[in-house]
Design a protein that fits this description.
This protein is 57% helix and 10% strand. It has helices spanning 2-12, 16-28, 33-53, 59-80, 103-114, 128-138, 155-165, 183-188, 198-209; strands spanning 90-95, 118-121, 142-146, 173-177, 193-194. It is globular and about 50 Å long. The structure holds CO-5-methoxybenzimidazolylcobamide. Residues 42, 45-46, 48-49, 52-53, 59, 62-63, 66, 98-105, 107-108, 144-146, 148-151, 175-180, 195, 197-198, 201 line the site of CO-5-methoxybenzimidazolylcobamide.
Length: 210
């Protein structure tokens, strides 16, 4: 579908305003929000990621693409959130210490809110103690950790240890995710659930909050 290609191309060029307009047009044409996200925005971001890896684009270009991604995704939020039955429960979410990537974390948050969960967003560069203190103070059933760097994913293990030290491990579950994270890593650090994408993360969080 050419409008989805246009979204992807303009995202790659960091044209945030155009991306926003095209996303609105795609919505108006009746294209499902999930398809706009997957085949327009995320497809463009994947190309940027590959070019970044190959040193064909650099941090400034990636940042403007990320901004375009977030602007487009903000229009999709209410549509992705239309999930019928609403669940209840409270979770906190953040990208772990040392890591500033927040696009995936924001998508996970968006999907969880869409399912009716109350999500406390701690932002990026979040210390293990902050996750644990927030879960204690705010009565969260789940701590959700996102990491995009192989150098920061280990911090998720520190979150598990901090939760154990605080004595909350029996009633607060820990979910982990992000591109370098795997099921094996989740088990290795003794976290509760790994999910590969935002939609699955939201479904699992709803189950854990029950
Ligand atoms: Co960065 N970066 N980056 N970057 N960046 C990656 C991650 C990288 C793979 C690029 C590459 O080399 N190919 C690479 C990591 C390599 C590695 O660790 N092995 C990398 C690097 C090296 C860096 C820097 C070190 C570069 C530098 O400065 N030299 C630096 C680090 C800064 C820091 O964090 N301290 C850096 C900086 C940046 C920007 C700031 C420029 C920008 C971030 C902007 C922002 O987030 N606001 C950026 C970006 C955008 C990327 C890429 C291109 C795209 C990431 C992204 O947003 N993807 C990325 C390359 C790539 O991934 N192809 C790259 C889209 C997003 C929707 O996917 O976050 O995976 P993702 O989320 C998915 C799932 O993983 C899952 O759901 C989401 C959707 O379904 N998910 C969860 C995520 N969290 C979850 C939690 C869950 C469950 C599922 O449960 C709790």
């Amino acid at each position: 579908m050419s409008i989805l290609n246009d979204i992807s191309e303009n995202l790659q060029r960091g044209k945030a305003k155009v991306v926003k307009e095209l996303v609105q047009q795609a919505i108006d044409q009746g294209i499902p929000a999930q398809q706009i996200l997957d085949e327009g925005l995320l497809s463009g971001m994947n190309v940027v990621g590959e070019k970044f890896k190959n040193n064909e684009v650099f941090v400034p270009e990636v940042l403007v693409a990320a901004r375009a991604m977030n602007m487009g995704a903000s229009l999709l939020k209410p549509l992705l959130a239309e999930s019928g039955l609403k669940a209840s429960g409270r979770v906190c979410i953040g990208t772990v210490k040392g890591d500033l990537h927040d696009i995936g974390k924001n998508l996970v948050k968006m999907m969880m809110e869409g399912k009716g969960l109350e999500v406390i967003d701690l932002g990026t560069d979040v210390a293990p103690e902050t996750f644990v203190e927030t879960a204690q103070k705010e009565n969260c059933s789940v701590i959700c950790c996102s990491a995009l760097l192989t150098t920061t994913m280990g911090v998720m293990g520190d979150v598990v240890k901090a939760a154990e030290a605080a004595g909350i491990r029996d009633h607060v579950k820990i979910m982990v995710g992000g591109a370098p994270v795997t099921e094996a890593f989740c088990q290795q650090i003794n976290a509760d659930k790994y999910t590969p994408d935002a939609a699955t993360a939201a479904d699992v969080a709803v189950e854990l909050c029950k």
